[in-house]
Write a sequence for this structure.
């Protein structure tokens, strides 16, 4: 009905736009009158004319009485912002949920979300629905660490990218800055320096987390200093040709060049080996132990920045034990947040469109059985 | 392209206002959201000045009418939606009458676009 009416008014508008001479005022006024519909609608087929309007019963009342039928006694319905997820438990009306849509509508001040439930009650089904709805509204979903895998089929259905981490499959290099490195190459000045430090601290903290994980004890301060200096040294040597790998770090620490020896405050080769001996074995274990073949090479399949969904499937890793699973999650999260930050940095440079990200993170097999869903606009706000 | 189901609206006007003394929340049951999308509109037409005693005391006089439209996603659910809406109106002490042959006007009256059937009925074209 609306479409037809619109088409008709367009036709009429076209007719009115006809060049009119000065003496042509009569028909022009008639046309103008036709642009405003009569009370019951235009008297023509398919114009939405009312067939009949019956007079409703009207009650005469003074405003003292009429206010008794107060219309604002019920809350308004649930807001229609976001993806329809089900019906209201009390009223039965449709309920919509989408953290980013809620944030934009001003319903929440923080788009973080936590889904908690007993096994088999539909946590991941709900999250899958939210992901589908978010992707439909232009949000990029990052499934950071899918342990089942729950999201592989959905990701493929949405033409997204599935990265399968595991031995003999895709690898993640914990020292790979990912798209942040790409952003860095396009930047200059103080912004680039700030980002470079950010990248360095991210890589270092991720590498230390992995080391702590395989050692099952803390990394000492001396070891941290040596690790940091080794990464800087490798960056200088490789000069951006490729990202250093854990094996490179191991090699350079074993070689013990002067820079590292002075960083370790060691006066002799013997003293240096004494300081880094534990670290060498820890790094070696990362490359050859139970984690071998997953984190010790270059990233085999980089995240596609243009994909609507990226799912990192770590289910194969999970079969190999909790330690490997935790390590895979750490790397996946670090890599995923690197992607969101890189996208924000590239958008600041106006080389890419700014896009909101929705990150889905799963809690490690914990007694809570939870899904942690951190939904973010890119955290970098420069 | 998203295929929307053929929705079907049903519209009512009130037939009888509450006959007994009511409290201010009497309309709550009718207005509260429910399983079917529903709109309720109360229309007040202020009367031109009449010399009523109450008006002299500062009150205005008006004509009031009430319209309800419920929308269902397909014809299967009409009966249930109609029963639900009429029951909700009953809880609010209001009797509804379906706007026979005037469904289009009733539907428009519950949209926020200023359609007043009481006024339109008087302007029936000849």
């Amino acid at each position: 009905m609306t479409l037809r009416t619109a088409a008709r008014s367009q036709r009429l508008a076209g007719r009115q736009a006809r060049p009119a001479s000065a003496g042509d005022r009569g028909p022009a006024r008639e046309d103008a009158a036709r642009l405003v519909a009569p009370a019951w609608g235009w008297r023509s087929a398919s114009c939405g004319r009312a067939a009949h309007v019956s007079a409703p019963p009207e009650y005469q009342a003074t405003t003292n009485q009429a206010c008794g039928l107060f219309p604002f006694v019920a809350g308004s319905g649930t807001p229609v912002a976001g993806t329809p997820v089900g019906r209201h438990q009390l009223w039965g009306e449709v309920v919509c949920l989408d953290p980013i849509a809620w944030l934009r509508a001003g319903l929440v001040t923080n788009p973080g979300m936590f889904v908690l439930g007993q096994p088999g009650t539909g946590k991941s089904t709900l999250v899958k629905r939210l992901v589908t709805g978010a992707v439909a509204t232009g949000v990029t979903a990052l499934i950071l660490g899918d342990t089942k895998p729950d999201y592989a089929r959905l990701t493929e259905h949405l033409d997204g990218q599935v990265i399968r981490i595991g031995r003999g499959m895709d690898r993640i290099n914990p020292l790979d800055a990912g798209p942040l490195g790409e952003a860095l190459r396009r930047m200059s000045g103080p912004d680039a320096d700030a980002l470079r430090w950010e990248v360095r601290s991210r890589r270092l903290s991720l590498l230390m987390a992995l080391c702590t994980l395989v050692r099952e004890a803390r990394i000492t301060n001396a070891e941290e200093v040596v690790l940091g200096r080794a990464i800087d040294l490798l960056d200088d040597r490789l000069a951006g040709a490729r990202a250093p790998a854990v094996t490179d770090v191991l090699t350079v620490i074993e070689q013990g060049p002067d820079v590292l020896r002075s960083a370790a405050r060691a006066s002799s080769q013997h003293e240096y080996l004494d300081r880094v001996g534990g670290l060498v074995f820890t790094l070696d274990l990362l490359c050859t132990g139970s984690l071998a073949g997953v984190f010790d090479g270059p990233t085999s399949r980089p995240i596609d920045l243009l994909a609507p969904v990226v799912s990192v499937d770590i289910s194969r890793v999970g079969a190999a034990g909790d330690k490997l699973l935790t390590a895979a999650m750490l790397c996946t999260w670090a890599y995923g947040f690197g992607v969101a930050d890189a996208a924000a940095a590239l958008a600041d440079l106006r080389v890419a469109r700014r896009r909101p990200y929705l990150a889905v993170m799963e809690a490690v097999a914990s007694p809570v059985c939870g899904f942690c869903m951190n939904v973010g606009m890119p955290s970098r706000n420069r | 392209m998203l295929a929307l189901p053929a929705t079907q609206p049903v519209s009512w006007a009130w037939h009888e206002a509450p006959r007994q003394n009511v409290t201010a929340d009497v309309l709550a049951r009718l207005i509260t959201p429910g399983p079917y999308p529903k709109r309720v509109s109360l229309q007040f037409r202020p009367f031109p000045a009449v010399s009523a005693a109450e008006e002299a005391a500062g009150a205005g006089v008006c004509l009031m009418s009430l319209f309800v439209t419920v929308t269902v996603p397909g014809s299967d659910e009409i009966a249930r939606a109609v029963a639900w809406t009429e029951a909700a109106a009953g809880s609010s002490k209001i009797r509804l009458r379906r706007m026979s042959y005037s469904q289009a006007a009733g539907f428009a009256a519950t949209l926020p676009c200023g359609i007043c059937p009481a006024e339109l009925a008087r302007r029936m074209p000849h």
User: Anything to note?
Assistant: Chain B touches chain A through 50 residues (CB under 8 Å).
